[in-house]
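Protocol step 6 of 9: fold each sequence in the batch and record its structure tokens directly after the sequence line. For illustration, a two-sequence batch is reproduced in full.

Sequence one:
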Amino acid sequence: MAKCTRIDYHKDGSIRAKGQTVDDVLTGCWEWFRKDGTIMRSGFFENGKQVGEWTTYDSKGKVYKVTKMPR
């Protein structure tokens, strides 16, 4: 079982997303960012599936919406 931190980038080199994977499957907390660096969305994965509370942020990084995913 290979656990690692994964970081994906926008074409301009800024961070697009970051989080953990186990054997290339998304797990744990993940965050997505806009090109200007503000957070856009965050939430948790279990075995590659979205679980728990997922938060969407407005363009200034303030909470816009919280969605509860089934387990």
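Sequence two, same batch, same settings:
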Amino acid sequence: EKRMALETRTRAWIKSIVWRIIGIFVLGAIAWLVTHSWKEMTIITIIFHGVRVILYYFHERVWERIHWGRIKHPLSSLPVNKELTPWDLKIIQKQLKELGYID
């Protein structure tokens, strides 16, 4: 089943931070093994990952504007003014079945 995923800016930020946390531990371990200095390890890790979080966020935002490789949902051109209720979804699903768009 294909579903269109939309992402908020907050979600993009959270994803970038979680990924950086993983990277912080990996780079911290490598930096400490090379320098054997907690101070140097901390400085290297903080600077590197601070820059990477910001770059990753903007990388994600740029890719949100690139339509290549995306599948356009056939109903994406319909404006929806409010959240659909479960009842609304049932009605829509029933109509789509009757019209032969879904099984």
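Proceed to step 7 once all outputs are recorded. Observation for sequence two: The chain has a mean pLDDT of 88.
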